[in-house]
Amino acid sequence: MAVKRIRRTRSGAPIGRVRRTRQREMPGSKPRYFVRDDLTWGQKFQLYLMTSYLYYSLNRSVISNDEYDDLCKELASGWRTGEHQHKHLVTLADLRAVTGYAIKYPPMVIGGAMVLLQNHREV
């Protein structure tokens, strides 16, 4: 919950009461990214790579930890049949451990991650 700022007089005494309000979406703010169910395995793998880069290299996050955990579990379950050009960068053990810390990210993933960060609000 965010604390609403209040004006103060010169003596420092508050003019109004402090109210706790829920943070609401501001008009013109970026939407939060949600992992959709209709994405293919390859699209989810690309999202995994981009969000891992943002989190582990830039300390930024556009999806929640629970969504990241679910994404890793889903990718691990489809590992044998899933196809992606960067699949060789990740091991099944990385997905089962729910991490992307040791990945060597190619420039294509880094560029996509930067676009994702610009277009979506951080969590």
Question: How would you describe the overall organization of this protein?
Answer:
With 123 residues, the protein is mainly alpha-helical. It has one domain. Helix content is 40%, strand content 3%. The chain has helices at 41-58, 65-77, 92-96, 107-119; strands spanning 2-3, 20-21. A two-stranded antiparallel ribbon has the order 1-2. The chain starts with a strand and ends with a helix. Residues 12-23 have low confidence and may be disordered.
Describe this protein with a few key phrases.
single chain, 123 residues, mainly alpha, 4 helices
Topology:
Elements lengths: L1 E2 L16 E2 L19 H18 L6 H13 L14 H5 L10 H13 L4
Antiparallel strand pairs: 1-2
Strand order of the largest sheet: 1-2
Sum up the overall morphology in one term: globular
Order of helices and strands: EEHHHH
Distance between the termini: 14 Å
Number of strands: 2
Compute the average pLDDT. Answer: 82
What number of structural domains do the residues give? Answer: 1
> How would you sum up the major sheet?
2 strands, antiparallel
A few lines on this structure:
It is built from 4 helices and 2 strands; from the N terminus they run ββαααα. It is mainly α and 123 residues long.
